[in-house]
Structure formats: C-alpha cells, structure tokens
Amino acid sequence: MPDASLLETFETPVDTPFMIEHVAEEFTSLCPKTGHPDFGEVRVVYEPKPANAGGQCVELKSLKMYFQSFRDEGIFYEAVTNKIRDDLAALMEPTWMRVTTDWKGRGGIRSVIRADHGPVPGHVH
C-alpha cells in the first residue's frame, strides 16, 4: 500500500495567502486488472494555511518518495487521485487543495481525474 508515513512537512514561511503547485511528470502505478504499468502526471495545487495559523507545506523529497511508493501498487486511477488528496489533506490541513492525475492513453482512451479538498477559491457555493 502507498506509504503516507513517508511524507514530511515544514512550517509555512509567511502569514499571507499564496498557492503552491507541484508537478510529478513520471508517476507510475499498476493496473489492478492487468498488472501492466500505468504512467501519468500528478499535479498538486494547494493553498497552505498561513504560518500564524500553524500552516504546513509538504517537503519535496518526501513527496517524491511517497509517489514512488505507488510504483508496485495495483490501484485504479480514481483511487490514486483520492488517496493522494486524502493523505496530503490529513498531513497539511491546507485551506484548499486540488490533486489532478493525467494518465497516458491506452486503447485510445486518456483519463484525467481531479479531487478537491476545501472550498474552491473564488467559487460561489
């Protein structure tokens, strides 16, 4: 199972709002039906809480190691996306976050999966 214990944080460096975007271009996992490798890009965009509210940012080496823990995991695209969102949201408790996975095509079909945490900035409810 992918290992969320690999993830580490550091304190948000400022008290003002800002957005962070991390892109992992070489993400791999395994198709749970065929065992074949799935290749994709993972994009994590989030607004950490400010430093004066105890905000945390994910440390990049730990994020890379966490992503690599999916490499031998038989897991559907949708589960990958939601697992990453849930693990990062639990770790950092950001104001808002979106995880997008963009999978390489197979059999003429490409998939893009998005999972949000918190209210989307600028979105009227």
Topology, element by element:
Elements (H helix, E strand, L loop, with lengths): L8 E3 L8 E11 L6 E11 L8 E3 L1 H9 L8 H16 L3 E11 L2 E9 L8
Task: Tell me what you see in this structure.
With 125 residues, the chain is α+β, with helices and mostly antiparallel strands. It has one domain: 2-Layer Sandwich (GTP Cyclohydrolase I, domain 2). It has helices at residues 60-68, 77-92, and strands at 9-11, 20-30, 37-47, 56-58, 96-106, 109-117. The strands form two sheets. The chain has a four-stranded antiparallel β-sheet with strand order 2-3-5-6, covered by helices on one side. A two-stranded antiparallel ribbon has the order 1-4. The mean pLDDT is 95.
List keywords for this structure.
4-stranded antiparallel beta sheet; 38% strand; 6 strands; alpha+beta; two-stranded antiparallel sheet; GTP Cyclohydrolase I, domain 2; globular; 125 residues
Encode the helix/strand succession as letters: EEEEHHEE
Level-1 CATH class name: Alpha Beta
Q: Number of helix segments?
A: 2
Q: Which stretches of 5+ consecutive residues score pLDDT under 50?
A: none
Per the principal axes of the C-alpha atoms, what is the gross shape? Answer: globular
Would you kindly provide a brief summary of this structure?
With 125 residues, the chain is α+β, with helices and mostly antiparallel strands.
